[in-house]
Amino acid sequence: MSFSYLRELPKPEEIKRQYPLSEQLTALKAERDKKIADVITGADDRFLVIIGPCSADNEDAVLDYVSRLAPIAEEVKDRLILIPRIYTNKPRTTGEGYKGIASQPDPEKKPDMLAGLIAMRNMHIHAIEESGLTCADEMLYPENWGYVEDLLSYVAIGARSVEDQHHRLTVSGFDVASGMKNPTSGDFTVMLNSVYAAQHPHHFVYRGHEVETTGNPLTHVVLRGAVSKHGNNVQNYHYEDIMRLIDRYEQMDLLHPAAIIDANHSNSGKQHREQVRIVKEVMHNRKLSPKIHRIIKGVMIESYLEEGAQKVGERIYGKSITDPCLGWEDSKRLIYDIAEMNV
Hints:
two-stranded antiparallel ribbon, 12 strands, TIM Barrel, globular
């Protein structure tokens, strides 16, 4: 037998009952969801900044980060909506070693799925309590959605998941803004087909139940760069790339054409400092073209308290244990620059 069944995990409803979100914060989330949705649909001309560590590996450091983000979010609220990036499912790229806090709450210990689900939920609740900002997470495992569906205001589907039918169908049941990244090949068709699938209703099996979904009209694309067959990074945030995306959107029957630019990953070649230049180019192109201004709704930035990334075995507070991130001072300055450029 290939599988060893260790234990049955609690259903999402059980975990939510044990670790509830208060009525006050539930109302706050509904308000935030509406504001973010209005940006995606074009009813609000503010700009989304999804910003935070590559992987949310340590609750104390993550809460420290979002507590610093909160007053800045208040300062720039007339022009920007800041969405803390708290990616609890994010493993190291190869999948070897650290699996993300949802699977491995302590990077130095073995995986513990039950403790991970609780840690994932608690981190998001505590972040909202600390900052008044509801957050973004990446849905690496569709089965985890029920444990955080009442907490998240934005969901990303990664480059390696976007071609998976189960991910696409699951997103069709979400009621929050959901970004489909282009696959690592860079294929726009795959990405837009994922958006099309998620925007439409479906009938399928989910967590042992036969379910129907209504479709998610807030599904959109995220451009994160690509990798050529020779292993070279290929950027897709330039003016010509966005115009090509607009042309492809116009050929498909999709609601609310929208795109988020991921400033790291293959767009930066994981050179974290390049994110500053990339974001400023994106903002400049929005000024040059009304079409680009309409379709580019925000950026994703990998940022943490300390710049760069630490090696396996190091224990540096607030420094990424996965991909390198922009440091806090550079991140803060960049947020203010984005606000100044969103006119």
